[in-house]
Design a protein that fits this description.
eight-stranded parallel β-barrel, alpha/beta
């Protein structure tokens, strides 16, 4: 019987095929106490050594096929294996409680997973999957069980699982996996990130899909709507095959726009740039028609490791992106850590509300040693391309001046050392805090550009935690107050002859693009997969018409009113 399930749309597209079900092995744990604790500790150490070897191989494969940033998760797995608290806890249970190695590993891993799952931040909760993945690997090694690998898939299939770990996705044959469907996961979970990176349709958070699908069942995965159809009838198959074929044809047609300029119907040129997290992402973005990099999220260089990246490491990464993009602009955001993004090796004080605490530029100003290392790397890389730099979470002129003061110190150091850099490198700020948006005319006198970060600007303007699922209805990109702030920022930039871009999710929203064009936005920075659809859309819009529409939208009273108005205007 046909069964339609709804989950989280993690990666767009439509997959149709037979299910390849990943069943978890039921482990039977020993009930006897350990008679030789030293032997059990030795067994545990042997499992750790073998796990490190396996993870190293997976890391190399992931780096080759998906890029260094995606492979970095395995560095985090190695860190888990080497964590003294984990090792000490396991060895302690073996010696003090006479546990056999299997039981000790399970107990301590379960404790760690529970701690992470109960953390406030979604990012940290989803890291529990990394710990569980490492624990499963250790247990399988101790039990002598060979892990079933997605590399075993022989026919094109849709993978159905409770969850897909980094170890799973790194082993799969990309030609054989048509799509994913999992019980658990969020949009920032590894399975979702990997699916988007590989452009594989995926729906996650389906709760019970693993229990409801049998090996070989026919499935339809709609990664755009978040629906999975189990055992579809012939009419549904025909409908979705036609839908899939239309999407593939559209994708092929869009490829013709890769080298075309981003121009409106009335010949207004805008820039479509990409948001990236690694040098490999820049290569993919350029292949998708990106005219620049509007946001290089440098914090990914700092994550999933046990110490700060050196100046040389950072310089190499920034230089690679600059050289990949040639003359096209590359906007590098300085370190944006804090809030939902933490570093295991950076001691941050516990705060009641970390989103309003010591994060981003505030952290950098408190730790000029960290900040200077990054500024040196960025400036050095600026000699190899069209690099621009921006500070995140600026709220006051004093913060901007303090940051620029440190930048000037670094420039002087580099000059004294005879190291080349672009002395005219543009320096801008992200507009994420309402205070900065309201004072945009004052900031415009002291910066070279603005980049509007709508993800945070929305949550700070409407006072809504964007991670809180109960408040999703209040997270409104089309709220009239937000549109007015955006217009204020763009107008302030233009009044001083500066440019204004946007690097939040809103920049790639097909319904927001006409509004932003009408408000005069110069640069739209989005995920690489959104660039060609946005270019196609712009070619059918006249900025003059969109300007009139945007002006009218500013006087609507609710976000729903704005949406309804824009939808009708575009149709007409």
């Amino acid at each position: 019987m046909t069964n339609v399930k709804s989950g989280i749309a993690a990666s767009p597209g439509i997959a149709i095929g037979q299910a390849w079900v990943v069943k978890e092995v039921t482990l039977t744990f020993p009930t006897d106490l350990a008679t030789d604790p030293d032997h059990e500790i030795n067994r545990y150490h042997q499992a750790v050594a073998k796990a490190k070897e396996q993870i190293g191989q997976l890391r190399d494969k992931a780096a080759r096929e998906m890029g260094e940033d995606k492979a970095a998760v395995f560095d985090a797995h190695l860190m888990v294996l080497e964590d003294p608290e984990l090792t000490g806890g396991i060895e302690g249970k073996i010696t003090a409680e006479k546990m056999q190695a299997e039981n000790a590993v399970k107990d301590v891993i379960d404790q760690f997973v529970t701690i992470f799952e109960n953390m406030d931040m979604e990012y940290m909760r989803e890291r529990a999957a990394d710990i569980r993945d490492v624990g499963t690997r250790l247990l399988y090694l101790l039990f002598g069980i060979e892990q079933r690998s997605l590399a075993e898939i022989s026919e094109p299939s849709i993978v159905v699982a409770h969850d897909l770990t980094p170890s799973d996705t790194a082993q799969m044959d990309r030609e054989k996996v048509l799509g994913f469907a999992t019980n658990i996961g969020g949009r920032t979970s590894h399975s979702a990130i990997m699916a988007r990176s590989l452009e594989i349709p995926a729906v996650i958070g389906l709760k019970t899909v693993l229990e409801e699908v049998a090996q070989g069942d026919m499935l339809i995965v709609d990664g755009t709507t978040g629906e999975v159809i189990i055992r579809p009838d012939e009419a549904q198959l025909q409908k979705y095959r036609a839908k899939r074929d239309a999407l593939l044809a559209e994708k092929k047609e869009l490829q013709k726009l890769v080298d075309e300029p981003s121009v409106t119907k009335d010949n207004v040129r805008v820039e479509l740039a990409a948001n990236i997290g690694s040098p490999e992402d820049a290569i993919a973005a350029k292949a998708r028609g990106a005219e620049g990099i509007g946001l290089f999220r440098t914090e990914f260089l700092y994550m999933d490791r046990d110490d700060f990246p050196s100046e040389e490491e950072q310089f190499t990464a920034y230089k690679r992106v600059a050289e990949t993009m040639g003359d096209a602009p590359v906007v590098i955001r300085t370190l944006d850590i804090g809030g939902d993004k933490e570093l295991s090796y950076l001691e941050l004080s516990q705060e009641m509300n970390p989103f309003l605490g010591v994060r981003a530029i505030r952290l950098c100003l408190e730790r000029p040693d960290i900040f200077k290392t990054q500024l040196r790397a960025i400036l050095r890389a600026s000699a190899y391309g069209n690099i621009k730099m921006m500070y995140p979470m600026i709220a006051t002129i004093e913060e901007l001046r303090a940051a620029n003061g440190i930048l000037d110190e670094v420039k002087t150091e580099l000059k004294n050392e005879g190291i080349a850099f672009n002395e005219a490198m543009e320096v801008g700020i992200m507009i994420e805090i309402p205070a900065a948006a309201v004072s945009a005319d004052l900031f415009a006198e002291e910066v070279d550009f603005f980049s509007i970060g709508t993800n945070d600007l929305i949550q700070y303007t409407i006072a809504v935690d964007r991670m809180n699922e109960q408040l999703t209805r209040l997270y409104q990109p089309f709220h009239p107050s937000l549109l007015r702030l955006i217009k204020q920022v763009i107008d302030a930039a233009h009044a001083k002859g500066k440019w204004a871009g946007m690097c939040g999710e809103m920049a790639g929203d097909p319904l927001a693009i006409p509004l932003l064009l009408g408000l005069g936005l110069d640069e739209f920075s989005m995920s690489a997969s959104s660039i060609l659809p946005a270019r196609k859309q712009l070619r059918h819009l006249k900025q003059a018409d969109m300007k009139q529409m945007a002006e009218a939208a500013l006087y609507k009273k609710t976000a729903q009113d704005v949406r309804f108005f824009v939808e009708n205007e575009i149709k007409n």
